[in-house]
Structures
1.
Amino acid sequence: MTEALIVSAVRTPIATSYKGSLRDTSPEELAAIVVREAAARSGLESDAFDDVILAESLAGGGDIARWAALASGMPRVPGQSVNRHCAGSLTAVGNAAASIRAGMDSAVIAGGTHSYSMNPTVTSRVPGQEEPVVGMRPSFPYYDGANDDVTLSVGWNVANEVDITREEMDAWAFRSHQRAVAAIDAGQFVDEIVPVPVTLDGNSFDFSVDEHPRRSSTPEKLAGLGPLHPEIDGFSITAGNASGVNDAASALAIVSDERARERGLTPLARIRAWGAVGVQPHLTGLGGVDAIPLVLKRAGIDVADVDLWEINEAFASVPVAAVKQLGIDEAKVNPWGSGCSLGHPIAASGGRMLATLAHELHRRGGGIAVASMCAAAGQGGAVVIEAV
């Protein structure tokens, strides 16, 4: 069977939205930067790729993957944009791997891009009203407590469902910041990060280091934060145990094993399995948990076979729930931080997670890793990769 191999994996640094270093850089510009670099590092010519598949979320239309291909000097390479909200770039990678394993394509760039800072505003017409209203199209009908408030559907409802305390979530978030800061200081992300040239307030510089982790975070500061819904008795979700609001992009060059052999390419990892699940929208956070058994089964492995986990901290409740429900060793989960610390640039996050895991597996010379995350409207996605 044809294998799908990751031969390069890159991302931009993650910025804090609205006030951070990428506040004036559009999501399509970020996409072009990582697509161009993923192609350059792959060992293939840019026109050797069969497709560019990029995830977007809340972008307001268009085809951002085709934009990025053209801006990267790849006019003969088509572009396909996908949207599975937070899990979008995991889906993009899965789609690329599927096409390669089916023998339809031999080289695809896949990833995602997101900018809260520069996101277009979407409006829609409401019958009976003259003026359009602002807001994205819904991804699900509203029923049984389902709504657009992710502090409820991802954070609070999951914490209640799995019996997770505020103290557990705060402790996880604090450790996330500690791990992210330690990883940055150790140069853990240098191999995957593409610096972004930025000019802000008349100053030009290369943005090259994730800026969202808080070195000053302490358990006491986290404990002192007020709940995001003080009107709900016992509400345990705060800005501290939630993910950040962020801007970034990620991209991976994925090729067939035959193409890799022909061109003498050195892969970082192979893609063993991928998949997505649906859950009740009011328990969206459990999508990131339920996707894990699905991909483990497809890969023919068990929890104990996995060496590294990236379980996105959309809210700290999600990885805590996964650890509790699936018996995962928490020491192997998010060892370099995640959404609570590094940040969560929505459609780019899955690609960021896979880039981090692929480079680490390559450094170790072996092992299996899983990236998993929940996605809005009651979904989840996951990907299994293995060192080659």
Note: The CA atoms of residues 227 and 329 lie 29 Å apart.
2.
Amino acid sequence: MDQGNTIVGSHAPSPDDRRLDAIGLACPLPVLKARKMLAQMAPGARLLVEATDPMAAIDIPHLCHEDGHILVNQDRSAPPILRFLIERGTDRAESASERRLDRDPL
């Protein structure tokens, strides 16, 4: 990641940090590609997602909430490009959406 990018903040980039160029991709591809990359990353590593799909502003924060990642920052100051800095959460046995699918019906 570019150390000069304001979205990176005070976090010193590590070799485990990654960047996803989702510019020009339509929903649901930015969030699907982000989920796939995050699954391959170590807990604590950061992913910078750059997208132009307006739905990413909803989908990326939702992904973080559902999968236990931290949305460190989001930047909408340079339209049409949206930037999201995500910190990979700790490994969990299953995501919130998987837990809902496994519930016994009432």
Note: Confidence is low (pLDDT under 50) at residues 1-7, 97-101.
